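Agenda item 2: zinc ion complex prediction
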Amino acid sequence: MLSDFIAVFCREKHQAESREAFPIKDERLRQAIGDKEMMLCPDCTRLFSHGTAKLLLCPYDPKPMCKKCETHCYAPGYREKIREVMKFSGMYLMKHGRMDLMLHYFF
Ligand SMILES: [Zn+2]
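Presented output:
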């Protein structure tokens, strides 16, 4: 799930930033993330709320894989940022022997 990737990314890359728990206001969002607390810096909070807003607003039900979707709803710049997060956290998880998580996400 995106939340884990952003959480890893922020923890490793933005250690100097002051981080706060991401406010989960939406019930569907809570179901998607679970009850764990996400500590994010202001930048990552913005990035993540953008991502979750899009997820929750997706017009398709069930939601298809975004990369297969015809409606590219992510704002310009956001995709690049997410790609960076996925790449970094993907590498991080692999290095730390969390292939199980990777497999879980991508297959
Ligand atoms: Zn951050």
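Discussion summary: Residues 78-95 form the longest helix (18 residues).
Owner for follow-up: CH.
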